[in-house]
Design a protein that fits this description.
Blueprint (H helix, E strand, L loop, with lengths): L1 H8 L3 E8 L4 H8 L4 H23 L3 H32 L6 E3 L6 E3 L5 E2 H25 L4 H14 L1 H12 L3 E6 L4 E7 L1
Antiparallel strand pairs: 1-6, 2-3, 4-5, 5-6
Helix pairs in contact: 2-7, 3-6, 4-5, 4-6, 5-6, 5-7
């Protein structure tokens, strides 16, 4: 770790955590459980979408309507997985990072910004941006096209699930605002550290 530290951290920093970001589900779920306004909003929206879906079925309880809404939601969600990552890329560019890329390893797609330092505020903005924008747009769609309320609620349940990592990381940084983030793509490793 000393070689890595000399390469990018410098002598005035303290490493808080080093982890493999391709295999950090336990860590993300631990961070997701941290009580915060973000985690409460996330959970409330998720349960609200479940209730709205049930209400949409009760309002129009026929199989054809349910199948159309469910099918529409799944197709749109699968098409939007790349869109979620693209919104991360847009957010990173908005905060001034130009070396952001989309990768597609093993039929998965994700956004990364290799060997770039993020402070907590910039990382939270990039992390939460797709969740916030998508939730707002989906609510507008449900208002304009109420017949797709069921589809919108199913889509959001799926989208909230893939946003777990983003919400968990945001939660961590909300409680650790003096922490910085750096990732090394060649090692699949992320570093969290503080500056003294």
């Amino acid at each position: 770790m000393e070689i890595q530290k000399n390469n990018f951290l410098g002598d005035n920093t303290n490493l808080v955590l080093e982890f493999d970001y391709t295999n950090c589900f336990d860590l993300i779920h631990e961070w997701l459980a941290i009580p915060s306004i973000i985690s409460k909003i996330y959970k409330c929206f998720f349960y609200a979408m479940c209730i709205i879906f049930i209400i949409s079925i009760l309002l129009k309880p026929n199989l054809h309507h349910i199948i159309i809404n469910f099918g529409f939601a799944i197709v749109f969600f699968l098409a939007f997985i790349g869109g979620h990552q693209f919104l991360h890329l847009v957010a990173a560019n908005l905060v001034g990072y130009r070396n952001v890329k989309l990768m597609v390893p093993k039929a998965n797609i994700f956004c990364y910004c290799d060997k770039t330092e993020f402070n907590s505020n910039k990382y939270m903005f990039v992390s939460i941006f797709p969740f916030a924008i998508t939730t707002i747009l989906s609510i507008l769609i449900a208002i304009i096209f109420p017949e797709y309320l069921g589809a919108v609620s199913i889509f959001n349940m799926f989208h909230f699930t893939i946003s777990n990592g983003d919400i968990g990381i945001t939660n961590y940084f909300l409680k650790n605002k003096d922490t910085y983030f750096y990732c090394d793509q060649s090692k699949n490793t992320a570093y969290l550290y503080k500056k003294s």
